[in-house]
Design brief:
The protein is α/β, with parallel strands linked by helices. It contains 10 helices and 9 strands. The protein has helices at residues 34-40, 65-78, 91-102, 125-133, 142-149, 156-162, 179-190, 218-224, 240-243, 245-256; strands at residues 8-11, 20-23, 46-49, 84-89, 107-113, 166-169, 172-175, 205-210, 228-233. The longest helix has 14 residues, at 65-78. The radius of gyration is 18 Å and the shape is globular. 38% of the residues are buried.
Length: 258
């Protein structure tokens, strides 16, 4: 398994102390977390990473949690970070959990946003196939792309989020992400493999859940993270950092300040 060197943005470089790494979800990138990162960088350096196959990080045919955790380990070595706080959302939360279970000495404080260490039953096939079917050569503007996807992806916010991966170059649209790689690896993203390093992570962990989301499964959380604290964000769904950014940052900041 070959680790890749991840692209990243950094905020609050002037501060000392343990840095915070923010790990985004599937189809997202560091750009989705800039506003949150700026707020959390008031007292510490904050690194927002592009996971492999996302943003401007290198593409790699294989994409599962052991591989992406190895990318984090390489990033920390490259940046000379002995330890770091980890904040991960959705896929990024699973990366953070896997990293903590296999590199526990490298983790300071761990925060997981609206995901549990379980294998879910949902599929990304509809999303990936809809994006692959988009007639890129025929598109005149992004509005046309949004309308074309409406039948397969009715949620406007989700369509707009996905279309952040659509780039216009020399008058022609193309995908920033490799949709074939996403299609072949989506089953790894919804899964969570059984850890092989330690049976459970004994340190306190903050799990943030959206009130209107059903991703957190408490039994699974406490099995691997027995000292977890599960904290609900009122009025929020799965995208809790978008639905309630101020409260989200306050809860994260309070945890970091413990």
């Amino acid at each position: 398994m070959q680790a890749v060197e991840l692209a990243f943005e950094v905020f609050g470089e002037q501060y000392g102390g343990s840095p915070l790494l923010i790990l985004h979800g599937f189809f997202a990138s560091s750009r989705n977390w800039r506003s949150i990162a700026r707020q959390l960088a008031a007292e510490r350096p904050v690194y927002v990473l592009d996971m492999r196959n996302h943003g401007v990080s290198p593409h790699a045919e294989h994409m599962d949690y052991p591989a992406m955790a190895a990318d984090i380990a390489l990033f920390m070595e490259t940046q000379d970070l002995a330890k770091a706080h980890l904040l991960g959302h959705s896929m990024g939360g699973k990366i953070a959990m896997w990293f903590a279970l296999h590199y526990p000495a490298r983790v300071d404080k761990l925060m997981v946003a609206d995901i549990a260490p379980v294998s879910y039953v949902h599929s990304f096939d509809n999303t990936v196939n809809a994006l692959k079917d988009l007639p890129l050569q025929a598109l005149g503007n992004r509005k046309q792309a949004e309308e074309w996807l409406e039948a397969a992806i009715p949620d406007l916010n989700y369509r707009q989020f996905l279309l952040q991966n659509l780039l216009l170059e020399n008058g022609v649209y193309r995908w920033r992400v490799n949709l074939d790689f996403f299609h072949r690896n989506a089953h790894h993203i919804v899964a969570f493999p059984e850890p092989v390093a330690i049976a459970s992570y004994p340190e306190p962990v903050l799990f943030l859940s959206g009130e209107h989301s059903a991703y957190i499964q408490t039994d699974a959380v406490y099995r691997l993270f027995p000292n977890a604290s599960i904290n609900e964000i009122p009025g929020a769904g799965h995208w809790l950092h978008v639905d309630a950014p101020e409260l989200f940052c306050r809860r994260v900041g309070d945890w970091l300040g413990r």
